[in-house]
Amino acid sequence: MKRIILLCFSIVMLFSNCATITEKRYISEREEVVKKITLTNGLTIIAREIPNNIVSIQIWFKVGSRNESDKNNGISHFIEHLVFKGTKKRGVNQLSKEIESVGGKINGATSKDYTFYYATVAKDFIDIAIDGLIDSVLNPVFNNEEIERERKVVIEEILRQDDNPYSCLFNLLNDISYVNHPYKMPVIGKKEIIESLTREDIVSYYNKFYVPENMIIVIVGDFNTEEIVKKIKKYFSMKSSKSHLLNINMKAEFNSCKIEKETSFKKCYLAVGWLAPTVDNEDTYAMDVITTVLGQGRSSRLYRELKEKQQLCYSIESSYGTMKDEGLFKIFAILDEKNNILLQEKIMEEINKMKEGITLNELNKVKTMIENSYIFDHETNESIASSLGYYEAISSYKLELSYLDNIKKITLDDVKRVANKYLSSKPSIVVFKPKKESF
Amino acid sequence: MRLYKKKILLGITIFILISNVTLANVIKEKLENGITLILNEERVFPIIAITVFFKTGSLYETEKNNGITNLTFELLLKGTKNFNSDKFAEEIESIGALIDVDTTSDYTTVSLVCIKKYINKALELLVDAIKNPSFSEDEIDKQKKMIISNIESRDDNVFEFALKNFKELMYEGHPYKFDSLGEVTSILNIKRQDIVDYYKKCLSADKIVISVSGDFLKEDIIILKKKFEDINFFNDNTSLNINDIKLNSNKEKVIIKEKKQSIILLGFLAPSILDKDYPAFKVLNAIMGSGMSSKLFNNLREKEGLAYEIGSFFPSRINKSSFVFYAGTSKENIDKVKEGILNEIKKGIEITEDDLQKAKNYIIGNFYLDHQTNIRKSWYYGWYELLGKGYEYDKEYIEDVKKVRVSDINRIINEYFKNYALLVVENSN
After folding, report:
1. Contacts of B11 in chain A (CB under 8 A)
2. Tens digit of pLDDT for each residue in A63-95?
3. Which residues of B touch A156 (CB under 8 A)?
């Protein structure tokens, strides 16, 4: 989820009138240097060479809580925890030790649409990282003892989320906003489900989704693409595809609903959500413009009007997670309970103003903001690899490459049309109010 | 496997190859007024990052004005003599630049990142914020409300709540116990004149380090120097009266809170960044609680399954720091986790050459990975300079880490790990 929010904030637009030689070079370089190779078993490799002595290797799987049900919610994340717990070749946590002992970084993450594992190392250790990551994701032993140990750890992680107002708020907003779509479920799952999952459940789920055609290896940094593809192929020569997956889009049905509840948190927290375009919908670009105009930065409309001018809240921002199916466009605020009703009214006023359109100045400013943050966000191999992997996992890496061009095309009319199309329905609302006598 | 072992031994040497942190392009200059300027020229990306360091922070505050540094510096971005708060935000965001302030205990920064073509405008705004803050009553009032809300929200985050209470326990009688946000009462007591007077002291040329990294031109630096050359030296007669931090016996405090998870923070006093034992503590921190191959992660999380989040931290401080073990766990495991941590300290003296080498590689690798962006480079060079180590320490640090021996680790464990402060936030559910 963090990744989605991060991308949503950092995804970029190029202000058409400001495209200097440097920026043009930047864009064309990206288009020329990113290579995609698909092996016969369906495995995708995406490579970008950057001669800076560092290599970031990431293995993405098109599986996350979106592929779960209310019987096994949390299993994708549970498997992510178990992948580093040993293979036939490696002991528990051995890969982490191998990578960290050569000064590298290693971890994994799960979201609604994907799961990924990554390592960043000096180029001399590329073989350890490739061998280790591929071995871990293809050959986990799922030892019973390790499953039991990790079950406790995951449950602790769930409890930790329950203590966090932001994760509680957004989990509840998702839960009430979707009718049947799996996006309504939390990525981390629920305690009672995690407690009930068996080794058989885990192995069966793993066998279904951890197959080459559901897998993307992204490698960015100092290496030779031809050599690296040869190396990767060796691991998959004996590994034929286990099944054919149809990773089709699922239509999300929105449920406009409002929940206000008392919590032990000291402040009042508000989240408002509407159904937003999918990653493959052309409207996604205008939605990013809307998100930034409304609630990104100190000069955004919500911040200026509701926080600074009317002082109805202490913080306010908007976000839009670009996802495979319809994600949510969200507004989030921290406030005093006494301002709850008025702030909701004023948010709706700002939404209505947005439907009337924005000014050319706003459009230009937002394009510049996003263009620059794109450049800031592409200083490391790891961040470049993450962007490519993220888009390939939910659609195509080409969307990362064409993003700036698509944003450049956005007009004032597009913004108005998209605002009217997506923000005219009644939103879902969650309010956490402090208990009168919380301690 | 043979190849792998060979490479581990070569680890440090090879990893240095990844670095463009050679300091070859770094220059230090002194402006006539005493401001220190560090310049790191890099042409890889069209980005320029500027971090302006001020030698001020919650270390220089009192019970009465706790939070004044953060409040004052936040107000730099809330209006100047040339632009009101809205207009200032509009001007910065219209060129897609990022400007931010950060207050810690030992220092405060105002940082800027921009694309090179906008450097002139961005620099103009950065300097305007630093030299001409308006400190309007209206903005002060709004900012105080905002900070008080943040203080209340801080308590909603169980780890932050625990850390605040831990610092109060550990650093009783010393300003390191202060949270940079301040307390509701101290924030309410701060008046506009307090802020104006406080900032006058902060804006003293001898207490400022400006660190620049990225794709700048000579002309950009000439303009920068010109803009900062009229900042004066402030003759501050008030001396910093700080008690030595002591922990004469174990201190324990338990707070019951309506949460689902319990938090444990167990800390020992540790050396300052200026102390010879600083590198050895950094290595010990890597061995004990950094990353997935650390002792705590493997022994208490992986083997025992006692906690989801577990590790240690050793913040770099001008005064005495602390070496802190932390864990998020369940109520019934609190004692087991505490015993487990104390046991790991006892076992600490059993560390091997292999443990040591791996920890060093971990530190060095992470050091370079954290030096990939211009903003981080500008931060590191300026930080070492401000804390009195000199920007060159960015390179020397790695050499010092390499020199740490097993006997150093044994010695610091015996010498420092005696009395502890233990803070437990116990969940009531």
Report:
1. 101-103
2. 999 999 999 999 999 999 999 999 999 998 899
3. 261, 307-309, 328-330
Find the CATH number of the domain harbouring A128: 3.30.830.10
Residue where the block lists tokens 């990653």: A279
pTM: 0.91
Of the listed ranges A134-138, A150-154, B61-65, B417-421, the least confidently predicted one is A150-154
Strand partners, B99: B112
Shortest alpha-carbon distance between residue B425 and chain A (Å): 12
Verify that A200 and A275 share a domain, yes or no.
no
Co-location of A49 and A151 in the same domain: yes
User: Both A180 and A227 in a single domain?
Assistant: yes
Interface A-B: count of C-beta contacts within 8 A: 202
Q: Assess whether A268 and A187 both reside in one domain.
A: no
Strand order in the sheet with B108-115: B26-30, B36-41, B208-214, B47-54, B108-115, B98-103
Show the tokens assigned to A293: 């105009």
Which pLDDT score is estimated for A30? 55
Residue matched to tokens 């405090």: B253
**pLDDT tens-place string over residues B161-207:** 999 999 999 999 999 999 999 999 999 999 999 999 999 999 999 99
Closest CA to A366 of A411, A413, A424: A411
- Kindly identify which residue of chain A lies nearest to residue B94, measuring between CA atoms: A365
**Domains of chain B in sequence order:** 26-228 (3.30.830.10), 251-427 (3.30.830.10)
- Output the six-digit token pair for B335: 């004692």
Cβ of residue B114 closer than 8 Å to a chain A Cβ: yes
Chain B contact present for A379, CB below 8 A? yes
Total domains, chain A? 2
Find the closest chain B residue to A127 by CA distance. Answer: B4
Range of the domain at A351: 258-433
Residue B348 is given by DSSP the state G
